[in-house]
């Protein structure tokens, strides 16, 4: 858990070991961290200096930060001298054929059958010897690692931070919250996200403690799914486990206490309820309303859902009636605004004004972002689920009248302004102005930002990489990139089928990752004519992103005169885990403007094929996604700044600074904390 705390918070829990002289180790720790692009804070160095077990403490800290940026594995590209001397693709393939013939192997037409193809032909040490040392640059990243509290205090702090998050957590953070719920004290918290409530209640269920904050039947279904090791979001089917008798009684009693008006929600997950009923044996217990839940699931009892009433009103062409029904559920009313406006519902301004105080800031932000993109039709509608899966459809919706939207937008913005905390002065770092305010969790990693967020950096060379390690069977991932011009027209690609071209260079195809494998792509700013560069990772064969032992994507920048080996930790700008159901990952896209690179986070996964995914087959859909991502207007920190300006300053209130990371004083509101700031 100590490693997890360091990776998640960049705070190092204190050691409770015996005092001693660790001054020399403290100096070694600072030097080791600097080689990975990190620096120990003064209080961390002072703490290490006074420890008897300083060496073990320091080693654990270095391991954690290296793992955070993906630096623990050996990143050995196929071409030893990459990015230099990358061969032409066909010439390289013929070289592999000649090598096979020389070894007495008859070529079959399959590259994978050639002994030299896809298998690194040199050791890691030989690769290192082929590269000069990295020349440090002021552009290299330095990230501060700070001293935290005790391990118990840091566990409790992170537990409370995740549990009380106003936005739904990403899958990795949900799993972490489940672990922390067992380790941390079960204190009284405001837990606004229902999935988080289910995770906490699953820990209480196993420990036979009272369940809390259950007021819908779906809360119980989420709890049962989480307690069975299934999907608490209910997006994927769960194989429910056999519950102990006290657990069955607790679940059924919780169902029995839910209001009868909520029975209509059963219809949304009817099959899951029927499977759960087989595990809970409801007729063995005297809970009549709980028994009604399963009767509705079996269609033995009718309970019309709230959504059903709304759909009936729309089917009858009565948008005003649909709006009146939705007014009883403010969050659903806000989410249905687009449909109500297109259907011609009247009196929406008044209904919205009455509803917004009851709606979470996350929903208000999502609605504002949606409405800001509805005054003109999109070239294509790009849908992304919370699982990051994506699909595309034509935009056949009529645009919404900006004059009709203006009063609704003003009402919603006024409510967000009301919720903002008082401050005497607001300071916003320039680097976060184009960062999107998060309304859901993001991928685990380092320097990872919400979808749509932009970051700016400089460098002669943009280098991105994929590293993966297979779990049970041979797995081949392929790093590729689509090159587009200023109108998003296809200019070319770089991949294992096109090792170089358009100012981009590939490090070579590696087809087995039993000990881990890495592929790189370099794009030289002065050699490419591409305006946009869209990296992608294709699962060619073997295990998917959710099945491999390890899977990550990252990018770095450097100047041409810096030299260095292919993977240099100090030049890594970001590293993101890849965990998704699709077979093609689109983590981020890049835009070139003069001496500057702009990166826009995508966090998307295309379905792809079961086998043989290649950049040539999905480049057209990638063009549409790239164009849609850059044309979309997002709710960014710049808009939060504007809302603060509308609120005005309060003389005696504290100052507020918004940035990417904490400073020495710990007084910065980070992007991840903006959701809570807007909910106050």
Task: Provide structural commentary.
With 680 residues, this protein is of the alpha+beta class. Helix content is 37%, strand content 17%. The strands form five sheets. Strands 7-17-16-9-14-13-12 form a seven-stranded antiparallel sheet, with no helix packed on it. Helix 1 (2-9) crosses helix 4 (54-68) and helix 18 (348-355) packs parallel to helix 20 (402-419). It is globular and about 75 Å long. The two termini are 30 Å apart. The mean pLDDT is 94.
The helix tally amounts to 23
- What's the Cα radius of gyration? 27 Å
Low-confidence stretches: none
**% residues in beta strands:** 15-25%
Major sheet summary line: 7 strands, antiparallel
Helix content: 25-40%
Question: Looking across the biggest beta sheet, what order are the strands in?
Answer: 7-17-16-9-14-13-12
| Category from helices, strands and their pairing | alpha+beta
Question: Mean pLDDT, as a whole number?
Answer: 94
Number of DSSP strand runs: 21
* CA-based shape: globular
Q: State the end-to-end distance.
A: 30 Å
